[in-house]
Amino acid sequence: MQPLSFLLALVCLLAVPAHAEIVVRDDTGATIRLPAPARRIVSLAPHVTENLYAAGAGARIVGAVEYSDHPEPAKALPRVGGYSRLDLEAIVALKPDLVIAWQSGNSAAAVAKLQALGLPVYQSQPDRLEDIAANIERLGRLAGTEATARRAAEQLRQRLAALHKTYAKRGRVPVFYQVWPKPLLTVGGDQIIGDVIRLCGGDNVFAHLGTKAPAVSVEAVLAADPEAIVASGMGRDTPVALEAWRAWPKLRAVAHGNLFYVPSDLLQRPTPRMLDGAEALCRHLDAARAKRPAQ
Fold first, then answer.
1. What ranges in the chain are assigned the alpha helix state H?
2. For 185-200, what is each residue's pLDDT tens digit?
3. Which domains are delineated in the chain?
4. Which of 50, 102, 166, 210 shows the greatest Cβ crowding within 10 Å of its Cβ?
C-alpha cells in the first residue's frame, strides 16, 4: 500500500466512532455493562415500557408484558406474559441484548434464570417521584438515546418542582389510599404513591406500615378516621368499592364528602404520567381543605 493510501485508510478508520462500554447502575445497586447501546430490549413491566418510550427508546423494544398499553404503539408489541407470570421461552426467543425488569413486581426466580442465561438485566424500582426522572435518564443511556431522555427527565423535574412550590405549605390532610378492595390493600410509607400523598400535603394514615402494599381491615380504616379516601380502579370508571364507604356515614371522609377517584394508570405506574395523577390528587385534597369549617 502506498504511503498516501495507507494514510487515507488510517484516517477513515479513526473516523469510525467506536462505542465505549456502557456502564449503568440499576435500582438494586447492581452494575449493568453493555458493549454498545441496546438494540433489542424486552420490558417486563408496563411502567418500564412507558418509560422506555419517554426515553426515546420505543423503537428498541422487541417485547413487553401484558398491560403495556401506553403510548399507543406499545399495544402492538409482542407479549412475553404478564409481569407476575413471565414467559421465559418467549423472552429468550426474542434474542434481547437487554432486559428491563421490575424489582418488586417480577419474580426474583425468573429474573435470576434470565441472568443465568447470560442476558443483561436492569432492575427498575422507582420509590420516589424523583426516581422516575433518574430512571428515564439511565434507560436513555442504555439505549443510546441520551438527548431525548435528558429532555424528558428535565421536563418531569420542572413539573415536580412546581408542584412542591405550590403545595409545600398547604394544611395537612389525613388520607387513606385504597389500592384494592378485596383484600383491602393500601400503601405503606416506603411506596411512591405515599410520596405523591406527601407532595400534595397529605398524611398517609398507614405510612407506619413497612410493606409497599399492606393489607388492612375496615376496622383499622375506621379507627384511623381519614379526612379523605382516595381509590383507583381498573379502567376510568369510579370504582364501586369507593362508594361502599358510604355505609359508614360517621367516617370523616364520608361525612365531608371526600371520596375521591384517580385512574390507576396515573397513580400506580411510576412514569411521567404520575405527575398527572399527582395534580389530580392535589386538587382533590384542596377540595377537602375547602370543606373545613372556618377557623
1. 3-15, 46-54, 88-93, 108-116, 129-143, 146-167, 192-199, 218-224, 240-243, 252-255, 264-267, 274-290
2. 999 888 899 999 999 9
3. 13-155 (3.40.50.1980), 169-290 (3.40.50.1980)
4. 50
